[in-house]
Design brief:
The chain has eleven helices and eight strands. By secondary structure, the protein is of the alpha/beta class.
């Protein structure tokens, strides 16, 4: 990821959500209110203008996204299922006692902004690298701040999560927490991923859950993308956001055990894999 500019991937994901809002059938998958909130966030932040958002909310945009599914089948709709997975995990965690929601690499995601008023007793914290976080903060300021939502600009590639949260006055390391890392792990070096999981374990209390997505590893050792793996990896590298970490689902239990977590059952029958990413949950 380019450290001095806002994330292009975060922008792309947000525009995908706007386009999914006009795709037939996605209203039964996407969390309630997410499309309008995402549209507001992009407008208020200045990330994209009205013209781009009008195009994103058109059937022509949907057709273009679907046309690119030849490269990664079902990847367009996968963004909707990924958002639904993360929100389900947040709501489930709160239902079983979590008092904190920590969203890592939040981008222009609106989960915290939407859920904070519904759960005023829960502390929502988002962390993202500064250029993106500053634009997100600008949007939230215009859309309406939440007393229990805090946005923290921090590059976790340069600062440890434990140090960042140590500066958050009301963060409770003993409280039940839901950590969400959506579309993040593949952009980190292997050692950084392992360290991040260990740090999340250190800053959360008993009963915490870690909901994350990850890319699988193919038989050739590269990301399991499909027949167009080489082309996709080249595009990602040339855009400055290469994929650096993948793992086979069958290797997750050992990886999690090394960082203090154990695999957890998901509370719904959501798909295990959508598009190129797997959905996974760990518990403490």
């Amino acid at each position: 990821m380019k450290h001095d500019t806002p994330s292009s991937t975060a922008r792309k994901v947000a525009l995908n959500i706007v386009s999914l809002g006009v795709k037939p059938g996605m209203d039964t998958v996407l969390p309630a209110g997410i499309v309008d909130a995402t549209d507001q966030t992009l407008r208020a932040s200045g990330v994209v203008g009205d013209r781009a958002l009008r195009f994103a909310a058109s059937q022509r945009a949907v057709a273009i996204y679907e046309a690119f599914d030849w490269m990664i089948p079902s990847q367009f709709e996968a963004f909707a299922h990924r958002k639904a997975f993360c929100e389900t995990q947040a709501r489930y965690g709160i239902a079983v006692g979590a008092k904190q929601i920590l969203v890592l690499g939040a981008g222009y995601d609106t989960l915290g902004w939407r859920l904070a008023p519904e759960f005023p007793e829960v502390h929502f914290v988002e962390i993202d690298h500064p250029p993106t976080a500053r634009l997100k903060a600008k949007a939230v300021s215009e859309m309406g701040t939440r007393d229990n939502l805090r946005l923290i600009p921090a590059d976790l590639g340069e600062r440890r999560l434990t140090d960042v949260l140590a500066e958050v006055q009301d963060w409770d390391r003993t409280a039940g927490t839901v950590v969400i890392a959506e579309g993040l792990t593949q952009y980190l070096m292997p050692a950084a991923v392992r360290d991040l999981f260990a740090q999340c374990h250190a800053v959360s209390g008993p009963g915490s859950r870690f909901a994350f997505t990850h890319v699988g590893t193919g038989d050739d050792g590269r990301p399991d993308i499909g027949r167009w793996t080489g082309l996709v990896l080249w595009i990602l590298t040339t855009t400055g956001e290469p994929w650096l970490w993948t793992i086979r689902p069958e290797d997750l239990p050992e990886f999690l055990a090394d960082t203090g977590w154990t695999p957890a059952a998901k509370p719904t029958d959501s798909p295990i894999r959508c598009g190129v990413e797997y959905h996974a949950v760990a518990s403490k």
